[in-house]
Amino acid sequence: MPGTYNDVAPLRPVESAGEPGGAETSARTSVPITVVEPERTARGGIVVLHESREFPPQLVELMRSLAQEGWIVVAPHLFDRLPDDDVHEVFGDELFADFDAGFDWLTRRGVFPDTIGVLGFDTAGTAAFLVATNRPIGAAVSVAAAGIVDPLPDQRTSLVEVAPSLQAPWLGLFGADDPATPPEAVDQLRDATARANVASLTVTYPGLRHRADRPDPDDDAAAAIRIDSQTRIYDWFDSNLR
Average of pLDDT values for 195-210? Predict the structure, then answer.
């Protein structure tokens, strides 16, 4: 079924959901997902974890572009479990349960685990990194992932601490002027990921205050940064999801 549509992905049973040692805390049994399928036979799948209640145009465009590259793109509706509109960030065990639901949705359709990637933004980018340390996936990309040195609330450990445990190739995109990911912390993460037994690449964009996929429109280099970051994402998945 090529094109874009909505579906529902069942959650795993309580005892296997979330991070190792964690537990699903709500009575949910499924998570809504948005799916973008390629027109041709799929090469694999990508689970997109996003930090927004709505799907902004930039995200929809990226999902469609990834589908054009041959991937089935699955985006769980992470905020479906949070009725409070004032909550703007998601993390914790339920986020990992939502990833697992998207992952299982893909494998039930015949997608092999090593051809499934994860792409996350902001704190969901942090989750994408952690997924790459304990899930059988093929590749991971994090954009503006926080919690590098000091763990986020509900994050059991910092990224620097678990970086050597990466099991899947990981790409990280950061803004050099982002207060949530200061350059010295990103440098520590770059060094820590280099000790893992998988490929890693940490990219920092000078002058960028936050996300590489959504740079400041007043920045003259914004278009170049966006194109470069998206090209790196496409190339990372193309090189590692085989």
Answer: 90
The whole-number pLDDT of residue 162 equals: 96
Share of the chain above pLDDT 90, in %: 62
Rounded to a whole number of angstroms, the distance between the first and last alpha carbons of the chain is: 23
DSSP state string for 4-36: EEEEEEEPPPGGG-SSTT----S---EEEEEEE
31-240 CATH fold: Rossmann fold (3.40.50)
Domain ranges of the chain: 31-240
List Cα–Cα distances, 100 to 19, 97, 117, 196, 220, in angstroms: 10, 5, 12, 23, 39
Average pLDDT over residues 190-210: 91
Residue with the bigger pLDDT between 20 and 153: it is 153
Q: How far apart are CA 189 and CA 105, in angstroms?
A: 31
Q: Token digits for 99?
A: 């990833």
